[in-house]
Amino acid sequence: MNPQDTEHANSIWALFHLPSHWPVQTDLLQWCQDMRPGEAAILVMAGVVYLLFGWYIFKALVTINAGLVGAFIGGRVGQHLGSFAAGACVGGVVAAAAAWPLMKYAVAVMGGLFGALLGASIWRAVGLDGNLAWAGALMGLIAFGMLSFIVFRASVIMYTSLQGSVMLIFGILGLIYKYPELAPKITANMQGQPGLLAMAIFFPMILGLIYQQTQLGNPEGAKKK
Asked: 3-state DSSP call for residue 21?
């Protein structure tokens, strides 16, 4: 394997690597700096799709999410068994295949994961004990998971808007960091204003929520009344 292939394989494995601590803003900015231009462009395009068409094609998007989560879990298991690629492929296919017929439960799982991440982030943002961040994650997981069954459409729109906004902002940052003259300014502004990154994610999410709620009709595969 040549050096370029080795570097590419390492970058793919890095996507499946769990951090040793809860990522803070500095870690996220470093991840954006290390991002390749192609990866950043894909994030931007995918973010726009999730933001604007999340409800309309939510079945396909949720299936993709399930496949990625399954690939992550399968890759981790496969790594211990000696074949990361095989484990990731099997896990991704099985998870995607299971998500399609069990769409409501897949949305609930997706919402629970988002809720857990959001709950833990808020827990740490308000200055509570970081060792107990799991409590905030658990509350977010339960709340968002249950919300998926109570208000399904609103939950799908909210989850896809949040995911799309995160992908869009991180992709834009990844592209901006490719310009050496802009990178130090972006880092300085982000570190000087800790809430700036959260605000940058919040506004596109709200715009996506409003657009999907007011402009889009029945989702893909839904029966028209």
From this structure: coil
CA atoms within 13 A on the CB side of 119: 20
Q: DSSP label at 132?
A: G
**Does residue 155 contact residue 147 with C-beta atoms inside 8 Å?**
yes
pTM for this prediction: 0.79
The whole-angstrom separation of Cα 59 and Cα 65 is 10
Contact (CB, 8 A) for 16 and 88 = yes
Q: Tens-digit pLDDT profile for the chain (225 aa)?
A: 444 444 444 444 455 555 556 667 777 888 888 888 899 999 999 999 999 998 989 999 999 999 999 998 888 888 788 888 888 899 999 999 999 999 999 999 998 988 888 888 888 777 777 778 888 889 999 999 898 888 898 899 999 999 999 999 999 999 998 888 888 888 888 877 767 888 888 999 999 999 988 876 555 545 444
- Which of 206, 98, 105, 102 has its CA nearest to residue 146? 105
